[in-house]
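Appendix B, record 7
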Amino acid sequence: MIRWSAFEVAKQLDELEEIASQVKPIVAECQAKIKHIEGLPNVPSYITESLMYLDARLAYFLESVTERINSIRKKLPEKELRKEQDRQNLWLRLFDGDEGKANLARQTFPVKAGMSGGKTEV
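Structure tokens (predicted):
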């Protein structure tokens, strides 16, 4: 039994990933603007080189955020995460799919060490 909630971390990572996905169109717009600037007449190479570097950094940023989130997900203890997901699903069924009530119940009545005995009970 771990002392932290793998389920909550996974849930927050999902939300973080959603926020990060909202950045993608902004980064694409920045990259389009970079290409436009690079295409302006007589822009010196020392400026275009810096713009290319900026473009590469923007692409790296998006890749690194996604990779880091996936790396963190892989570190979550699968057995504990599955237990918590099963427990959350039980709460959801009990509260007719009301996620707010299910989340409150899961946080209010956490599984204590040794309670589940292989089965998830509410």
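Remarks on this record: The chain has two domains: 6-76, 78-122. The two ends are 17 Å apart (CA to CA).
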